[in-house]
Amino acid sequence: MSFQNFDVVIIGGGPGGYVAAIRAAQLGKSVAIVEKEKLGGTCLNWGCIPTKALLKSAEKFQSIQHSEEFGISVKDVSVDWSKVIGQSRTVSSQISGGVEFLMKKNKISHFAGLAKLTSPSTVEVNNDGKKVADLKGAQVIVATGAKPRRIPGIEFDGKKIISSKEAMILDKQPKSMLVMGGGAIGIEFAYFYNAFGTKVTQIEMLDQLLPAEDAEVSQTLGRSFKKQGIDLLVKTKVESVETTSKGVKVTVSDAKGSKVIEADIALVAIGVEANVAGLGIETLGVEMNKGFIKVDENFMTNVPGLYAIGDIAGPPWLAHVASHEGIVAVENMFGENKSGHGVDYDNVPNCVYCQPQVASIGLNEKAAKEKGHKVKVGKFPFQASGKAKAIGEPEGFVKLVFDEEYGELLGAQIIGTEATEMIAELGLARALEATAEDIFRTMHAHPTLAEAVMEASGAAYDQAIHI
Amino acid sequence: MATQISMPKLSDTMSIGVILDWRKNEGETISSGDIIAEVETDKANMELENFEEGTLLKIMIPKGGKVPVGGTIAIVGEPGENIDDLIKEAEASLQSAAVEPAKEEAAAPAAPKLDVPPPVAAPPVAPPVSAPTAGRSGRVKASPLAKRMASAKGLDLGTILGSGPGGRIVKKDIESFMASGGGRSLISTYANQLPALEQKDVPVSQMRQVIATRLLQSKTSTPHFYVTVEVDMTKAVELRGALKEASVGSVSYNDMIVRASALSLRQFPEVNSSFYGEIIRLHGEVHIGIAVSIPDGLITPVVRNADQKSLIDISEETKELAVRAKEKKLKPDEYTGSTFTTSNMGMFGVENFSAIINPPEAAILAISSIVNKPVVVDGQVVPGKRMNLTASFDHRAVDGATGARFMKELKRLLENPILLIL
């Protein structure tokens, strides 16, 4: 089979790969993208997007249950589980179709199949075990992403011991569920299933949910989860998991001793591992770092001309990081990065979409102090926000961390409804190097939740008005 | 008829130039092609070539001054010509463009003064005036944080070059300005007083980090061995002269060595290889990297398929790559993918040195100066032109005898340079 030549061949059609492909096409390059499943990757098909649809169902259900306080009585509320799941799948496939359209619009050659690197610049595409194409790229980008990591010794069976992928398409709602892991994915599923009435037990090995987050934020979330009915066990380790005819029997231990928890299903959400199997990178001598591909600041591996972006190039494993890496990698490799921008890993927003939502960017108070900053912290609770009270969402707060010397915004943490939308303002503030005073003096519309951001920056200097 | 010389756009992103030094003084005769000044742009320090004929009548922007692209920097004409109107015109346009006037102590007169003594240990940008931002017209783009830092430290933002979008001054620029000693006040000192040396911790740039990692890895994990040959360059020197005379172009010795290396590599594929543990890849193409020194490190532009290019093609391509390398404008595919590298220190009068292999290549060639020295030919001591070449080989991929034969072939080609033209 003769080679089809491209300026760049991209392996993986997720938010890293397809964004890189579009950027390269915008620069007038010939681009091939190889994807073994549907375009859009984990993000569109098995992650960000379908889970947001599921979470919206849970929120709607919760808000109907609390509609009484707004003067609306609703009777005979019922949940059609298959429609909850169906809605989420419909959204996924619509958006994946949208990505396919974008590939066509940008004249990107899409090859369906499994890619294998036969040299640093050649890619063999196989579909159903049959070779369908041989591609040659002046540059090659690996963007195959990552998949749920298993606990050593505990295998996924897809029925009783499941990963996030199965958790978003269960045929029927389990009566009880054990969630292993207190990170973003575990938290979103714990919230989702609990909201629909599944008895959820969540286990985290470290001392708080979202171990990297501000302690106050994590405590507030933990309290809210307990109030919502989730049984939350921190500083707790999973010792063993056993499947029974009814479900799973999980032995956990903490400082006080061990106990057995039974549930219909165990969800393992303890992180991800790189999708490297079958890629052929071992034979090319590609250097790895803790199971992920090692890259330089141009996202090039140790093999010249071979690049890696997104989850496969290591943490943070986030769709928006992958997309930015894809753009920077492509612009650099074609000499089109005129302003010389890189990916600013100090300014990556982290978002969790349970209720209350959690969003943060930059350094939290503890991390800032550890880095030697003298800090000024400003906090504003939504309890004191007119808008939050009016819409019945007074839970949570905005916390801003400033460097004392010049009022530099070091980081922001928000917990509360719409926190994930509000964090964008603080990302921009950090990118443009706004100081506390700039944020405080920027007029924020009344009444909005975002006023809490303005007030928190005032609070750092004892100038908040409504507290 | 006098004319103005204005600041040209020396890179496509350049908006402001800093006059680092004047190579010509007022009153000197200049002609087209002369280098009249050295200019710092956003990318690099560059020479400013003159295209006018006449006498340099007036320098509008003294050493250290900043001027936007298109601003008048000097006036050229006939000696004694009246250029008052031109000066006024230039001053007006400079003021409206909000350029830095001549920078001196706060007490300096408003009009540009010409014989400014060189500042002590000139920072990379124009020295700051002591009064912060006072009396400055025009907008300086700076982040709120940068403005606050500058005002706290008493810096004039107008003297700091911004690295953010559109030249915006950000925190990093203030920090690097301070680190480069830009924050020191400029008390007038005697021109001949030695500036004090000071201990400085310089942050390691990304490029330095890459150099450090890669070369440490190479030197510690690649078993190097070295082979030196002395090459009789008499005929190469003659050939270069002949080509120049025939107006074929100025081919350098380096170009000849690149071509000779490429031809030799074709014959010794083991030298044009990479050792990958399980396999040794004999490359199907010959791409030669040429180490070029740039201000904060080095970069290796690549002449692709050098074995299939003529000497003239190699020469032209190398020149063009070197210029863009120094401007930091190479695309990644222009500095990656080499299968063999050359490093030339001949211009420094180096007699012999050895280089560290650039992984995953199997060899690197260190090129020294051509030295005039007495040599013995047919039992007679005669003047000779000799050059040392030292290759470093990766012993995992190349054995001693192969390395030696490769060097012998390289020597043969360079001693019979007509073979390089065929």
Q: Span between N and C termini of chain A?
A: 72 Å
Q: Give the DSSP E fraction of chain B (strand runs of 2 or more residues).
A: 15-25%
Count of separate DSSP helical elements of chain A: 13
* Most extensive contact: A-B, 30 and 30 residues
Number of strands of chain B: 18
Measured as a percent range, the helix fraction of chain A is: 25-40%
Rg measurement of chain A, Å: 24 Å
Largest sheet of chain A: 7 strands, mixed
The largest beta-sheet of chain B arranges its strands as 9-18-17-16-12-15
State the distance separating the first and last CA atoms of chain B: 52 Å
CATH architecture of the largest domain in chain A: 3-Layer(bba) Sandwich
Instruction: Choose one word for the global shape of chain B.
Output: globular
Number of domains of chain B: 3
Short description:
Chain A is an alpha/beta fold and 467 residues long. Chain A contains 13 helices and 24 strands. In chain B, 27% of the residues lie in helices and 24% in strands.
Structural account:
Chain A is α/β, with parallel strands linked by helices and 467 residues long. Helices cover 31% and strands 27% of the residues of chain A. In chain A, 48% of the residues are buried. Chain A is built from 13 helices and 24 strands. Chain B has 422 residues and is α+β, with helices and mostly antiparallel strands. Chain B has three domains: 3-96, OB fold (Dihydrolipoamide Acetyltransferase, E2P) (Beta Barrel); 124-187, E3-binding domain (Dihydrolipoamide Transferase), CATH 4.10.320.10; 206-421, Chloramphenicol acetyltransferase-like domain (Chloramphenicol Acetyltransferase), CATH 3.30.559.10. Helices cover 27% and strands 24% of the residues of chain B. Chain B is built from ten helices and 18 strands. Chain B starts with a strand and ends with a helix. Residues 98-137 and 184-193 of chain B have low confidence and may be disordered. Chains A and B meet through loops of A and helix 2 and helix 8 of B.
